[in-house]
Structures are given as C-alpha cells and as structure tokens.
Amino acid sequence: MYGMKKLTIVWGFVIVIIFGALTAFGFFYKNRTSPYKDLEAKLVEAEKKYVSDNFLFPQDKNDLITLKDELVSKNYLDNLNLDGEECDGYVKVSDTGSTFKYKAYIKCSNYTTKDYEK
User: Fold this and answer.
1) pTM (2 d.p.)
2) What is the mean pLDDT of each successive set of 10 residues along the chain, which is 118 residues long?
3) Domain spans of the chain?
C-alpha cells in the first residue's frame, strides 16, 4: 500500500511539471507572436476601410486579395514595420454567404503567417 501511495505522489509531480512546462511554452509563444498578430490586425483594419470606401467585395465565390503595397500607395496603411523591419503582406477577403471574412497574411524575417503565399 505504501508503494502505491508513493507512485501516486510521483505521478502527481510529473503531471504538474508537464502542465507547467506546457503553460510556460504557451505564454512564451504568445508573447513572441503578439507583435506580429498586431501587424495582421493593422492590415485587416486598413483593408476593411479600403474595401468599404471603394465598394470592393468578393464576387462569384472568388476571393478579393489586396497587397500591402496597394494599401500603402492609396494611403490606407502607413507601413507594415516592426522594430525597423519592413514586412510584406496581403489581405484575403472571402464571402462566407452572410458576412465577409478578412484574413491577413504577413511575412517578416522572423515570422510568416501560416498558409502565406506569394
């Protein structure tokens, strides 16, 4: 009976250590990617204004794609810089039937949005 109690305590510690390590990794990843998520949000906000002002919407189930350079040249976006680095990017607007879905994709030297295509 004493061996079972000791085994339970050891497994309890192992579970706590694993949980703590995974939590720490999650916080580290979130802090590392947070500035890039902010850039993606900035790009989406510029695209929403651009689409609204120019009455541009996806048609015939085709996505509307706007490059960062177009948003900058039309003064909807000042830049896409992070710590002095100029990032590249675009926004894809999809028609979901009832709403429009905006998804920003950016590429910087240390970060690239999943499914980024250029």
Assistant:
1) 0.75
2) 81 91 80 86 94 81 89 93 91 87 94 89
3) 2-107
